[in-house]
Amino acid sequence: MIYNVDVHICFSFLLTQGFRMLEHRAKHKGLKNFRIMRVCLGDLSRLIVSGGGHRLTLRDRLERRKEADIMLDARAFLIHKIL
């Protein structure tokens, strides 16, 4: 199945803004050793199509754009057992 990423791009932008806001607040409160981790739980082998028509997997997109610090494949055996 192929998905368009327009909604994903908008959602990613909003998340990025949220991360920046949290980091800003932590800095102003003087918190030390504060770090936000971006976690993606999804079907990492899912094929997506960019606005320009390029096809790539969700994992490839996340790695290329550095959109997640931790990637969990929802289709992995361990995740199925947990859920």
UniProtKB/TrEMBL annotation:
It comes from the Eukaryota. This is Uncharacterized protein. It comes from Sphaeroforma arctica JP610.
